[in-house]
Structures are given as structure tokens and as C-alpha cells.
Write a structure and sequence with these properties.
It is globular and about 45 Å long. It is α+β, with helices and mostly antiparallel strands. The strands form 2 sheets. A 4-stranded mixed beta sheet has the order 1-4-5-6. A two-stranded antiparallel sheet has the order 2-3.
């Protein structure tokens, strides 16, 4: 990657846009930043598709529209302080997910994506597939795009 990446993480700045606790505000490794830029590049290159952008949009699509129970969604549990309850978050990888066709499939087909980072190992990809497998088994049809 050529050029410079600047990380804006001021809590005061993020508070102005009501995103004070946004995870993106936190400092990250360069590999994470490169992957996020790759995802942005993919999305900007394909503006014609209808993306499910946020966790609530994705959960609503699967649970409300497709009637998939939440226990089949890819989830991660975050443990806070001793006095607080654990928080369940869905689709924490935030890979693009969209409704759209490639010309040969209907426009309503859901497409999942995975962006391989700079590392050469496929272990992370295999883990990703295992996490999503329960959801995949609930769907009658979907597409999957592997980006490298």
C-alpha cells in the first residue's frame, strides 16, 4: 500500500456525529486498515447493489424477512465489566453483503463476501466459513464472493 493512512480517533470528534463508541474510532493494526480500505474499494466499485450495511439491517433482513432465528446468525459475545451483562453482536466481520445479480442470477439473491488480507494463510477464511455455516444451511439460495 502506497501513501499514508491517517487514523482519526478523537472521542470529542466522534461525539459530534453521535458515534463516540464506534469501534472504528479505536486504534488498529495496519492489516485491519488495509482490509477495511479493500472493502471500501469493493463497495465503491459496485454501487448498483443494495447493501445490507449495518448490524441492525442484517439482523432484520435475516430474522424478520427470512425468518431465520438469531441462533443461526454469526455472533460474538463481548464481556464488559463484572457488573454489566455480556453483549451479543452479529456480523462483527462487517464484510459487504448485498442483494443484486450478476446478470445470470435474480436481483434478489443475497451475496456474501470475504476479503482475504495480505496474509497467505487460508485458516482465517476456513474459520469464517465455519462461523457462517449455520446461517448458510438456513438459506435456500445465496452467492459467495471471495476477494483477494
Amino acid at each position: 500500500m502506497n501513501g499514508k493512512a491517517y487514523h482519526v480517533f478523537s472521542r470529542r470528534l466522534y461525539r459530534q456525529i453521535s458515534r463516540e463508541n464506534l469501534r472504528s474510532r479505536r486504534e488498529h493494526e495496519i492489516e485491519y486498515i488495509q482490509r477495511r480500505i479493500g472493502i471500501l474499494d469493493f463497495v465503491l466499485s459496485h454501487p448498483q447493489w443494495e447493501y445490507l450495511e449495518t448490524e441492525p439491517e442484517k439482523v432484520s433482513y435475516f430474522c424478520d424477512q427470512l425468518k431465520v432465528p438469531t441462533n443461526f446468525l454469526p455472533a460474538k459475545i463481548y464481556y464488559g465489566q463484572k457488573s454489566s451483562q455480556p453483549t451479543v453482536r452479529y456480523f462483527v466481520d462487517r464484510f459487504p453483503m448485498f442483494l443484486g445479480g450478476d446478470g445470470s442470477s435474480p436481483l434478489h439473491v443475497l451475496t456474501f463476501t470475504y476479503l482475504q488480507g495480505a496474509e497467505a494463510s487460508l485458516a482465517e477464511f476456513v474459520h469464517h466459513l465455519r462461523v457462517y455455516l449455520p446461517l448458510f444451511l438456513q438459506l435456500s439460495e445465496f452467492r459467495f464472493v471471495y476477494l483477494a
